Amino acid sequence: MFAEERKTEILQLVKSGKPVTATSLSQRFGISESTVRRDLQELF
Asked: pTM value?
């Protein structure tokens, strides 16, 4: 999965109103928590 696709999916998950954590996102996408945090910083 490309970074832009991942960021789009992360944004949809956040907008859904369900709680998400860096840990759950890293497990879902198979990436490190630091990558998740970097993606979130770029989105917000």
From this structure: 0.86
pLDDT in tens, 1-44: 899 999 999 999 999 999 999 999 999 999 999 999 999 999 98
| Greatest pairwise CA separation for the chain in angstroms | 24
Nearest 10 degrees: Cα torsion 9, 15, 19, 23: 30
How many other C-beta atoms can be found within 10 angstroms of the C-beta atom of residue 10? 19
The closest alpha carbon to 26, from 11, 4, 10, belongs to 10
Contacts of 15 (CB under 8 A, 6+ apart): none
The amino acid that residue 12 corresponds to is Q
